[in-house]
Design a protein that fits this description.
With 506 residues, the chain is α+β, with helices and mostly antiparallel strands. It is built from 12 helices and 26 strands. It has helices at 3-19, 125-131, 161-164, 170-182, 218-227, 253-263, 282-298, 337-346, 374-386, 402-408, 411-417, 463-466; strands spanning 30-33, 43-51, 54-61, 65-75, 78-83, 96-101, 104-111, 114-123, 156-159, 192-194, 200-203, 209-211, 231-236, 267-271, 304-308, 326-328, 359-361, 391-393, 426-431, 434-441, 444-451, 457-460, 473-476, 481-482, 489-492, 497-503. Bound molecules: alpha-D-galactopyranose. The site of alpha-D-galactopyranose has 9 residues, from loops. Residues 161, 196-197, 242-244, 271, 308, 332 line the site of alpha-D-galactopyranose.
Length: 506
């Protein structure tokens, strides 16, 4: 019997046992089938069963599988409960209400951003069985040996999400790729073209994932990108649904990795999304990410593995052991200074977790998307380069302005990010709104002087900020000039940054 078959059989047996304890018709207990649910969370049914006045139950949905009801109270035809989708810190569950009227019930509640106000009908065990969710067991954890040939410097490229969301198709991706090449940015290292959420369609009869109709042939798209000296990145989730509601890899992890490899995929971003309901503790999370890491490794194709679980459970400490080369350290960036600054200064991960092939990811770039000033975008780029973050641009490459190109194309700042030593900057001084970060480089060091305040500030550098010795050259990487000898006072604009490179003498 296949693993899936066995799982179905076991689930079926458990269900037969539990069905014996259903409260009868007319009471609140039993199976409540839901037909008109919004796609998120795709509610299928609520099951409530009780014995001797003690009730328990589950809500089954397309997104979260089967979630246990907590705080469950049955008072005649009125039932109240709460639901925890694994994201209680961000969106705690309010009280849900189910009110029974004969063979129908009215359900009201909320989960994450979705308000629920639906009717349900009483169902029989057979109907419930057809709607139950099969739980796929996770393999035991065994660490993977670190890959020695992947992402030795932080990955660079373009990603669709920040500018296009899921409004993407084959033609858009090709146009962006062409523009990346024509702009000269590919030749500066931006080689990954990452299709984020929104490419997935349904699975075929054998369970293989198909792209949706907007992506007629993923292999051909990969071939096209490869012919341009670019690489293809894709996106999936360990949950049944991705964050935008597309098909995730749940129950098909190995099969999906094989499909990606056959298409010629070079990079996978694996986003927890609905998997947060399934993988709640550190062990489950690590096993879920290890399952895909191992599956990618088993394909024999070098595929950069980007973990996106928003920095949960200290991922920087175990990301390499599940085959990852980079991991998000925090939630989503937005195209505004305060969001960027929070991710970039305060949630950029632990510098100790950074090494060649092992990178903290404070999220993709917003440079050129219009929500910040050019000064702020220079700060964004400076900060990402100093902490050795991936440089994944998120703007419309076909509408690249000279100002955006000057930021993304600053070779000297790119070189700080891509320095072969592979070390992250650390904050060496904080004085109110002023922060000084220092990153050791193979041939010296880079210093970032940042002003997080709303007024321009004169900053007087101390010798220990620079770590400079007599005779060393100090270059301003945005002004493209050496500082006159002995310069220690710099004016930093509101929300601005200066990046200095200290070049060791000799
Ligand atoms: C999450 C991720 C984002 C993006 C979206 C896509 O929010 O953190 O980077 O991939 O999902 O739905």
């Amino acid at each position: 019997m296949s693993r899936l078959g066995k799982m179905l059989a076991v689930t079926g047996m458990l269900l037969l046992q539990s069905s014996a304890s259903y409260a009868g018709s007319g009471s609140a207990g039993g199976v409540w089938l839901i037909d008109g649910s919004p796609a998120f969370p795709g509610l299928r049914m609520i099951e409530i069963h009780g014995r001797q006045g003690r009730y328990e139950g589950t809500v089954t949905s397309d997104w979260y599988g089967s979630l246990p009801l907590s705080d469950l109270h049955v008072r005649g035809p009125q039932i109240t409960f709460r639901l925890d989708n694994g994201n209680a810190a961000v969106s705690p569950s309010p009280v849900w209400r189910l009110e029974v009227k004969g063979e129908r019930a009215h359900i009201q509640g909320r989960i994450w951003y979705q308000t629920i106000d639906l009717s349900a009908r009483r169902g029989a065990e057979g109907e419930a069985r057809a709607r139950r969710f099969t739980v796929a067991p996770l393999p035991a954890f065994t660490p993977l040996t670190p890959a020695t040939d992947l992402a030795r410097t932080p990955p660079m490229g373009w990603s669709s999400w920040n500018r296009f969301g899921d409004k993407i198709d084959d033609a858009t991706i090709r146009r962006q790729a062409d523009a990346l090449v024509a702009s000269g940015l590919r030749d500066l290292g931006y080689v990954y073209v990452n299709i984020d959420d929104g490419w997935q369609g349904e699975r075929d009869a054998s369970g293989a994932i198909r792209p949706n109709a907007r992506f007629p042939d993923m292999k051909k798209l990969a071939d096209y990108l490869h012919s341009k000296g670019l690489r293809l990145g894709l996106y999936s989730s360990p949950g049944p649904k991705t964050c935008a509601g597309y098909t995730g890899s749940y129950g098909h992890v190995e099969q999906d990795a094989g499909t990606y490899a056959r298409w010629g995929v070079d990079y996978l971003k694996y986003d927890l999304c609905s998997g947060e309901a399934f993988y709640r503790d550190a062990d489950a999370l690590r096993r879920a990410y290890a399952q895909m890491g191992r599956a990618l490794r088993a394909t024999g194709r070098p595929i950069v593995y980007s973990l996106c679980e928003y920095g949960r459970e200290n991922v920087g400490r175990w990301g390499v052991s599940v085959g990852g080369q980079l991991w998000r350290t925090t939630g989503d960036i937005e195209d505004r200074y305060h969001s960027m600054a929070t991710n970039g200064f305060d949630r950029n991960g632990d510098p100790d977790d950074v090494n060649p092939g092992s990178w903290n990811d404070p999220d993709m770039l917003e440079i050129g998307n219009g929500g910040m000033t050019d000064v702020e975008y220079r700060t964004h780029f400076s900060l990402w380069a100093l902490v050795a973050a991936p440089l994944l641009t998120g703007n419309d490459m076909t509408a690249l302005t000279p100002a955006t190109k000057a930021i993304l194309g600053n070779r000297d700042v790119i070189a700080v990010d891509q320095d072969p030593l592979g070390v992250s900057a650390r904050r060496v001084r904080r004085d109110g709104d002023i922060e000084i970060w220092r990153k050791p480089l193979a041939d010296g060091a880079a210093i970032g002087i940042f002003n997080r305040g709303l007024a321009a500030r004169d900053v007087v550098l101390k010798e220990e900020d620079l770590g400079a010795k007599r005779g060393e050259t100090i270059i301003d990487l945005w002004a493209h000039r050496s500082l006159p000898a002995g310069t220690r006072r710099l004016k930093i604009a509101c929300h601005g940054a200066v990046v200095l490179k200290i070049v060791s003498a000799g």
